[in-house]
Design brief:
Distance between the termini: 66 Å
Number of strands: 14
Number of helices: 21
Largest sheet: 6 strands, parallel
Helix content: 40-55%
Shape: globular
């Protein structure tokens, strides 16, 4: 049997940008389904072909092995409940492994033809303390970058690239696209903290303040892991092998603070919203969509559900998610934002059976996600004297998941796996100050609620959850 040809410039007639104006750190499936797709569509619509993307994977070489033989091309398959649509995206011109070639990242960021650096490195990629949101200067990889090795952390890569860029005085926009509150401000603080720790006296910090902007953004699209069945289905349809195939839902949203240091693609032509303040959108998305996603993952695993779609079709879990938003979250979201209606829409999106987003995939890195998704809401609700009962159930779901994984002898997929694996109770987990800070431990009112809910989940049927609220 003859092996199928692989998707590439030679096998697909695709219009390509002529040069790279964007460097992207973290070329995973989400970036390709979101920023890369928006950028390509804008280029096709406007004819502006200087907005190609040079991408860097931060860890695994898998993405390079998928994309490089395909000249950066990949098929984007949008799966709705009734219709599937596939398109080839041609915005990625080059993809490299940053760990294998750290100087290439620095050179790319320093290139004056590049106007924007975008990032999707996940919450843990920033090496922040989850409780304070500050750069962990004692992180071994940060320490190694500060010692002068070729940089391998996001902070080290950005600062080294900006230092080299300063010689030509070329402005730059650094655009965070990860699920962090005020992500532009946090990224700016991370960069400045790294510069300060370097002890530089060459004016870099002042230059960054003058010539580099860090707009915040909110991104939204469900992008599950691509399966072998997805690839086989696409190969039958097209006759071409595509190892870099990405599957996503039809819905997408990108809201960006309009604060660019130089030119940018005409993203507004393809639906991107440019606003003065992203905070209302990012807060609602983190506290409703992302929080609900995590709750469905942890409780879904406890209920034996393999995917988010299965979990949200469980009437008990669906109602819990609805009540969390209605009772505890809505009051912490900016006025004018319909968090309850948004929550209903989100759960409908999650129920799309064509998207096999696994509960275990969403459950990863919980120590990094609890803060922006749940604990910030807890602090705001507590300060206002509002309910945190259901938020405590949400955190207890994570505690139960962690304790269950440890009891089963499974290693957590989490940056704090070793520390979390030593916990024997919810109180032990709440004592991890890098997650819960000094204010939400087991002796706090909220901590007591979490411990009570964790005990409930261990000894009762979740179907009886309402009696706890009486």
């Amino acid at each position: 049997m003859i092996a199928p040809s692989r998707l590439s410039d030679a096998t697909a007639a695709v219009v390509r940008p002529t040069s790279s104006g964007i460097v992207h750190l973290g070329v995973g499936a989400f970036h390709r389904a979101h920023q890369a797709a928006f950028t390509y569509e804008a280029a096709l619509l406007t004819g502006e072909m200087n907005w190609g993307i040079t991408g860097f994977t931060q860890r695994s070489n898998t993405v390079v092995e998928q994309l490089a033989p395909q000249d950066g091309l990949f098929t984007l398959v949008q799966k709705g409940t009734e219709q599937t649509m596939a398109t080839v995206v041609g915005s990625v011109l080059d993809v490299r492994n940053a760990a294998a070639d750290p100087d290439a990242v620095v050179e790319a960021i320093a290139d004056p033809a590049v106007h924007i650096v975008t990032l999707t490195v996940t919450e843990k990629g920033y090496r922040l303390d989850p409780a304070s949101g500050r750069l962990r200067l004692d992180d071994p990889e940060i320490v190694a970058d500060l010692s002068g090795r070729p940089p391998r952390t996001v902070a080290g890569q950005l600062v080294a690239g900006l230092a080299r860029r300063m010689a030509g005085d070329a402005p730059l926009t650094v655009l965070c696209c990860d699920n962090l509150p005020s992500n532009g401000r946090i990224l700016s603080e991370l960069v400045h903290a790294f510069v300060d720790a370097c002890g530089r006296d060459d004016g870099l910090a002042e230059w960054i303040t003058r010539r580099v902007t860090f707009p915040s953004s909110m991104v939204d699209r469900i992008v599950p892991a691509t399966t072998d069945d997805d690839r086989a289905e696409n190969e039958r349809r097209t006759g071409l092998r595509d190892d870099a195939l990405v599957v996503c839902e039809p819905f997408r949203q990108w809201v960006i603070e309009d604060d660019f240091a130089g030119p940018r693609p005409s993203w507004e032509r393809v639906g991107v919203q440019f606003v003065e303040d992203v905070e209302p959108w990012e807060t609602m998305k983190l506290r409703v969509l992302n929080a609900t996603h995590s709750v469905l993952a942890y409780l879904g695993i406890l209920r034996g559900h393999a995917t988010i779609a299965e979990a949200v079709r469980d009437p008990v879990l669906d109602e819990i998610c609805r009540i969390i938003v209605l009772r505890d979250v809505a009051s912490t979201v900016s006025g004018g934002m319909d968090s309850v209606g948004y929550g209903d829409e989100v759960r409908e999106r999650f129920a799309n059976p064509a998207l096999r987003h696994t509960t275990r995939q969403v459950a990863m890195d919980g120590s990094q996600k609890l803060g922006p998704r749940l604990l910030g809401t807890v602090r705001d609700a507590t300060a206002a004297g509002d309910s945190t009962d259901m938020l405590a159930l949400a955190v207890a779901a994570w505690c139960s998941f962690v304790l269950g994984e440890t009891k089963a002898g499974r290693t957590l997929d989490d940056p704090l796996s070793a520390q979390l694996g030593r916990a024997g109770s919810a109180a032990d987990l709440l004592a991890v100050e890098s997650i819960f800070g000094p204010d939400l431990g087991a002796t706090s009112l909220f901590g007591a609620q979490v411990v009570a809910w964790t005990d409930f989940l261990r000894t009762n049927s979740l179907s009886e959850w309402k009696r706890v609220l009486i």
